[in-house]
Amino acid sequence: MAVRLLKTVLHTTVFLCLAVTLVHVVLVFFHVAPPNPVSRRYSQQIDAWVYPLFEQNWRLFAPNPDSVNRQVSARTAHAGPDGSMQVSPWFDLSAVDSEAIEHQAFPSHTAQNLLRRAWAAYAESHGKDDTARSERAAMLQTYMNNIASDRIAEHRGDGGRDIDFIQLRVVTLPVAAPGSNAAGSPPKPVENRLLPWWKVTSHGK
Fold first, then answer.
1. Which end of the chain is more exposed for a tag (fewer CB within 10 A), N or C?
2. Within its chain, how far is the Cα of 103 from the centroid?
3. Residue 158: which of 203, 118, 93 has the closest Cα?
């Protein structure tokens, strides 16, 4: 009886894995394929599966390296017992990634790309007024919110219990030309973007 049950569980697991793999391949195929009646009709379902974890692009074959450096920082706010807002100092999220990459022979994909790609996707889907005008834009805003609040909560080690709101600041700096004097005056920011305060709904809030 135990052997039969084990075989049943094994066969069911294999079937589910194959089914999920097939669904994944089909959805990614329609995502990268030229527009067609199926991809247009089920675009919402396809995008919900693909973004943000399975996003596809051609940069492996035609790399497009960044021409600027971006410093993404975050600060949080917490409503005190008297109703006042307690605002934290800025926390440099990009510096944490840089520290995790520096002197590492095999740096993690998360440290190299998660924050950078999340911001690039957010900037492409939002205007200068930071208004989400599509479901994907709203999803990417939530994605950025979760990344920043989770990292701050992990840094503080308190589970994010005192995080009610979060705000991001992105300073874009030009990449210094080869052979430039690093000891000279620091480069002027190309853009200094301050995002609005976002309500934090993660961490059980």
1. N
2. 24
3. 203
